[in-house]
Amino acid sequence: MTAHAPDLTLPPTPRPVAPATPIAAPERPVSRVPSVDGGMTTSVASDAVLYTYKRAPGEFVRGEGVYLFDADGKRYLDFVSGIAVNALGYGDPGLVAAMHLAADGLVHLSNLYETSPAPRLAAALVERSFADKVFFCNSGAEANEGAFKFARRWARTVGEVKHEIVALRGAFHGRLFATLAATDRPGYRIPFRPLAAGISISERNLEDLAAALDTETVAALILEPVQGEGGVRVLDAGFVRELRALTKERRIALIFDEIQCGLGRTGSLFAYERLGIEPDILTLAKPIAGGLPMGAVLMTDEIAQAIKPGDHGTTFGGGPFVSSVALHVFNRLSDRSLLASVRENGAWMGRQLEEIARRTGRVRAIRGIGYMWGIDIMGTASHVVDAAREAGLLTCTAGDCTVRLLPPLVTTRDELALGLDVLEQVL
Are residues 284 and 146 in the same domain? Predict the structure, then answer.
């Protein structure tokens, strides 16, 4: 089901529901959080951490497969994946081995010197995508900021006044000054105005975008093939193809932000693959290094040729340790059988959510694809997230009324069914 499917607004259908019960987990490899003295943490001294997140109560100390365990030993089925980061779950033997192997080599050297892991990772990304060149950084926001710079640098070779960046209504591209200006969340934006100039947000329709995408002044259009924070809205393929044609005609770079929806989450390695077109620039982050901080900007040779030494840089980006781990993760996420499983189980998951909507009468709309779903509920999403957590299921929000589901890509259909059962009981 896509964002263009009708809302599933139904009258309540009462039925007796048993209380949600904690979920039992099968035996899986274990991932633990060590304390500074080498033992296991039992508490978190959080007073010294800047209060930028309203964290859930309790403390997680270890993980097994697609389950997390708190300090009291309670297990939770994870449908958040560290906000779409932990695609391989927890304690994955291959990922653990890749980290250990990488730690035996160089951890950091800076980009003043050559090491082999980053070029090997870049070559793998280029081989399996539209791109010719890759820039590595440390996060999704950095990747998008870099993409804006690269797009502007290229655009100045086309026209001296081409500099504007246009984003779509519902977008989330980051919290730095330029990416925040391209993010459609007034609550995030207002305290930090004035934001970066030359960046605007357009309504999500062809008429408004055709007016906004001025040939003379616009350098780039950025969009998420699936808007994540904006409510899990799957952009229509025909709509995106029209935008690709428009940007080509007007010499405007098309940037795809696949930080949340890329690298297998939609059932394709890259989300653009299902659309039948290619962007000029694409940004990645979240799952790329298995939980280590990393971002990447992929681009065509035309864009890359405009970039000169000194135009951009990074101290940590593409370091040998993180690049070695990321290559392992990328090869795993490229596996055709894994991608097929995400497509098939994701379609099944969508059908199950439709049935849950019909049975409970508490759902207004369902949107999503693969292992990325948004459920608009009658009421506030935070209440459902809290109740699900109490019942042993981790979910998150995507706006005030949307519950977001982002299970690890290795989650089996049986594990998906367990989670959906808890969600239905909570609803």
Answer: yes
Per-residue model confidence as pLDDT tens digits over 233-269:
999 999 999 999 999 999 999 999 999 999 999 999 9
pTM: 0.90
What distance lies between CA 238 and its chain's CA centroid? 22
Same domain (yes/no): 189, 250: yes
Residue given tokens 């909570």 in the structure block:
426
DSSP state of 56: P
Encode pLDDT of 91-142 as tens digits: 999 999 999 999 999 999 999 999 999 999 999 999 999 999 999 999 999 9
| DSSP-derived pairing of the beta strands 75-78 and 67-70 | antiparallel
Domain boundary among 269, 300, 333: 333
Q: Do residue 191 and residue 306 come from a single domain?
A: yes
Residue 21 lies in a domain: no
Question: Could you tell me if 250 and 215 lie in one domain?
Answer: yes
Q: Both tokens of residue 325? A: 């781990």
Whether the CB-CB separation of 203 and 338 falls below 8 Å is answered with no
Widest distance between CA atoms in the chain = 67
Task: Identify the domain containing residue 201 by its residue range.
Answer: 105-333
Q: Which residue has the tokens 């044609």?
A: 245
Number of domains observed in the structure of the chain: 2
Task: Answer whether the bond into residue 408 is a cis peptide, omega within 30°.
Answer: no
Spatial separation of the C-alpha atoms in residues 148 and 27, rounded to whole Å? 45
The amino acid at 200: S
Side-by-side strand order, sheet with 133-137:
133-137, 295-299, 281-284, 253-257, 218-223, 164-168, 199-202
